[in-house]
Sequence to fold (206 residues):
Amino acid sequence: MKKIVLSLMVFGAFSLFGFSQTKPVKSIEGLKAAYNGESTASAKYAKFAEAAKKEGLNNIAKMFLATSQAETIHANNHKKVLTKLGETVGAPVIGNFDVKTTAENLVDASKGESYEVTFMYPGFIASAVAEKADGAKKSFSWAMDTEKKHNDFYQKALAALKGGNEKTFPGEWYVCPVCGNTYDVGTLTNECDFCGTQKAKYVIFK
Ligand SMILES: [Fe+2]
Ligand SMILES: [Fe+2]
Fold:
């Protein structure tokens, strides 16, 4: 009984002085969903890279390897934030996906990124802001800003493929290991636009 009274007193004092910690429930939900979503996207793009290679589309294959790597970085960043928030994170749940022709795969990939950029991440970021979950906000923002670029790459790849110009599509790709930001050789920067990481640390696909 004494113990209970003591616990209540300690809890009361902490609450009184503003030390009570409430978990950012919505942000945690979002981080878990995004962890699975990014892991699924990574697995899917790795398969899309294989399919492109089989079709002799080596530049598009390299792009998919780079975007697959970016999604793994996003998934790991979400996992790190979850762990910091005291959550136990197991292996990701990989969703189902189909591998078709590269033209179809590009359309599918673009749809996925569009959903994340226009619907999923803006909602998650709004929750993180409301809950003052800064780590979640940063991880969501890095992913969303990268996905915008991925969507653009996929649309350009599709246009190149349809126009018979795949050989002139960029064949060198770079991924920032910290935030997942993805660059083709033509848009490479000395420091990552999102997180400031030096170019020398980028992961190269060529
Ligand atoms: Fe992406
Ligand atoms: Fe970065």
